[in-house]
Design brief:
The protein is of the alpha/beta class and about 575 residues long. About 55% of the residues lie in helices and about 15% in strands. It has 15 helices and 17 strands. The strands form four sheets. It has a five-stranded parallel beta sheet with strand order 2-1-3-4-5, sandwiched between helices. Strands 7-9-10-12-11 form a five-stranded mixed beta sheet. It has a five-stranded parallel beta sheet with strand order 14-13-15-16-17, sandwiched between helices. Helix 6 packs across helix 10. The protein is rod-shaped and about 190 Å long. The structure holds adenosine-5'-diphosphate (ADP). The site of adenosine-5'-diphosphate has 21 residues, from helix 8 and helix 10.
Length: about 575
């Protein structure tokens, strides 16, 4: 059975001829019992009916007044709501070919020529109804599909949004994770750093503790040793001074005692100088002097000084000179160079029981290489570096046997460094040692000045007046006795103010010995005031500081000379001779 028969078939017939419409309804109702025919007499009402009734087929007459069938067909096909309804155009037989083409172009599905063939009409109507039904089904399916698609699209969009949201959340979580990871890594790094720093500071603390313990041990040993080193000469000085009081002594005994006292004083002075030197080194106060002098003279004078000492211990002392060195007049810090070689020679003789001590220098390229070699007890490898540390002695027991304060090599090493070199030692225990160092070879700038030989006669300064400014009674007493023997007229001031007063009262004063450390005004200031009043007056500074720069301070104040305490009498005499004669 045909599907359209199941449901009612709705046919819209548009024709301006009422009779045609009646005939059409009759034919269709006869042939298709379930068909309902609705009719319109003009185009506009036909279009309205099509819109309101949604028929299955439209039968449309072409020739109509006001709006003809072609126009109605065009409008019906243009309206999306009803364009799918098949249109069968009813044409007159004579309808020309052109009109038919126009109708097809406007969308008409079929043509029936008037007078209508009933069978053909019904067949056409049925065919069109089938097409419409198929089209409706298709549209239905399409719209179903479209709604499915849009539902799916919606679902997908929703899913997409959800997914996006999840992704964003995931990204956020990732970011958070990364941040946490970074924070953890940073924390770990901080922790690692802290552990390293703590380990480092613990290690530093251990090193510092060991150092402090070592230094404490060294200092205690040094103090014990130093106490021994100071008490020994002091014992000699005090003991032999007591003996000097005895009236029964003959001249030879007295001379011997005085020599012993003098030797012990020199030993004490050496210790004090070492302590001052090491303090200056540690305070960073070491400065170099630049003296022009003859190196050979210096080395020979040292050989002379040590010859007796060496032979007294049964040792041979050899001085080696470099025959290749053309000019031995050099520029260097003579005092420090002498002190370094002195220390090395003292040690070499001290630590050598038999054999020989050899010292000297060689010129190599632009440096002077010095050496002091002995055939003594030698130094084991483990001790070779450490002996340059202050207070350090290989064996404290041995040190007592040999004497010494453990400062010589520390001072020597610091001095050599300051002079631009480094001190080295090579040694074989039981065979001997060789200490060596280099300093830059700088030739002396000035030619040596030939000093006129001064007569060595006993000095007599009769008629000359000297003002001694000195606040220490013993120091003044000593100067008073010595200078009194030279027939000088002596004035004495205990402090700066008294010195100025005496200076004013005694314009005949020929020379002033000025202690720089006074209880009221610094000697430097008093010197300046005196020299403002008498610029030609020779003022000789005396100071117990013996620090580098004291001499410069004295010269800056305008002093004519400088004497470091303890004052050596021959130096004082030389100065007096040069200013008073
Ligand atoms: P000291 O006043 O004890 O001699 P130094 O600083 O001059 O002090 O020397 C330190 C230590 O080095 C000495 O105590 C000694 O143990 C060792 N020493 C120095 N020179 C020699 C040497 N020529 N032979 C053997 N040991 C030496």
């Amino acid at each position: 059975m045909e599907s359209f028969l199941i449901k009612e078939l709705k046919i819209l017939a548009i024709d301006d001829n009422q009779d045609n419409l009646v005939a059409l309804r009759a034919v269709v109702s006869d042939a298709i019992p379930r068909a309902r025919v609705i009719t319109a007499l003009d185009g506009n009402s036909g279009i309205n009916l099509a819109l309101s009734e949604n028929p299955d087929v439209i039968l449309l007459d072409i020739v109509m007044p006001v709006v003809d069938g072609l126009e109605v067909c065009r409008r019906l096909k243009q309206d999306e709501r009803i364009s799918h309804i098949p249109i069968i155009m009813l044409t007159a037989l004579k309808t020309d070919h052109k009109t038919r083409i126009s109708a097809l172009e406007f969308g008409a599905e079929a043509f029936l020529a008037k007078p209508l063939d009933e069978v053909e009409l019904i067949a056409q109507v049925k065919a069109m109804a089938k097409i419409k039904e198929a089209a409706d089904m298709q549209r239905l399916e399409r719209s179903h599909l479209a709604s499915l698609v849009s539902e799916r699209t919606l679902a997908l969009e929703k899913e997409l949004i959800e997914r996006k949201k999840t992704e964003e959340e995931l990204q956020k979580a990732n970011q958070k994770l990364r941040e946490t990871q970074t924070a953890t890594l940073n924390l770990l790094e901080d922790l690692r750093k802290e552990i390293t720093a703590r380990e480092k500071s613990e290690a530093e603390l251990t090193v510092a503790k060991n150092k402090a313990e070592e230094s404490d041990r060294l200092k205690s040993a040094f103090l014990a040793n130093m106490s021994h080193e100071i008490r020994t000469p002091m014992n000699g000085i005090i003991g032999f001074s007591e003996l000097l009081k005895e009236t029964s002594l003959d001249i030879d005994e007295r001379d011997r005692f005085i020599k012993i006292i003098n030797g012990n004083c020199q030993q004490l002075l050496h210790i004090i100088n070492d302590i001052i030197d090491i303090s200056k080194i540690e305070a960073g106060l070491i400065e170099l002097d630049h003296d022009d002098f003859c190196l050979d003279d210096l080395m020979e004078s040292m050989a002379d000084n040590y010859l007796k000492h060496a032979s007294g211990r049964g040792l041979q002392l050899i001085l080696g000179k470099d025959p290749g060195c053309k000019s031995t007049r050099i520029n260097a810090d003579q005092g420090k160079l002498r002190q370094v070689i002195d220390n090395l020679l003292t040690n070499a003789i001290k630590f050598t029981e038999g054999g020989r001590v050899e010292f000297g220098y060689r010129l190599r390229d632009n440096s002077l290489d010095f050496y002091v070699k002995d055939t003594g007890i030698g130094i084991s490898e483990e001790h070779r570096k450490i002996i340059f540390t202050r207070f350090w002695q290989v064996e404290f027991g041995l040190a007592r046997k040999y004497g010494g304060n453990g400062l010589g090599l520390a001072i020597s090493s610091a001095y050599v460094n300051k002079m631009g070199g480094e001190i080295h030692v090579e040694s074989t225990p039981g065979m001997g040692s060789c200490f060596s160092f280099s300093i830059p070879y700088i030739q002396a700038r000035a030619k040596p000045q030939i000093q006129p030989q001064k007569p060595q006669d006993a000095s007599d300064f009769t008629g000359k007046t000297i003002l001694i400014v000195e606040d220490e009674p013993d120091n003044f007493d000593l100067l008073n006795i010595i200078l009194g023997r030279l027939n000088l007229y002596i004035l004495h001031a205990w402090d700066g103010n008294e010195a100025m007063r005496i200076f004013d009262e005694h314009p005949e004063t020929d020379l002033v010995l000025m202690d720089f450390k006074l209880p009221d005004v610094p000697g430097q200031e008093i010197t300046k005031m005196m020299l403002t009043l008498r610029p030609q007056l020779p003022v000789i500074a005396t100071t117990a500081y013996a620090m580098h720069g004291d001499k410069e301070k004295a010269m800056d104040a305008g002093c004519a000379g400088y004497l470091a305490k303890p004052i050596r009498m021959n130096e004082l005499l030389q100065l007096l001779k040069s200013f008073l004669n």
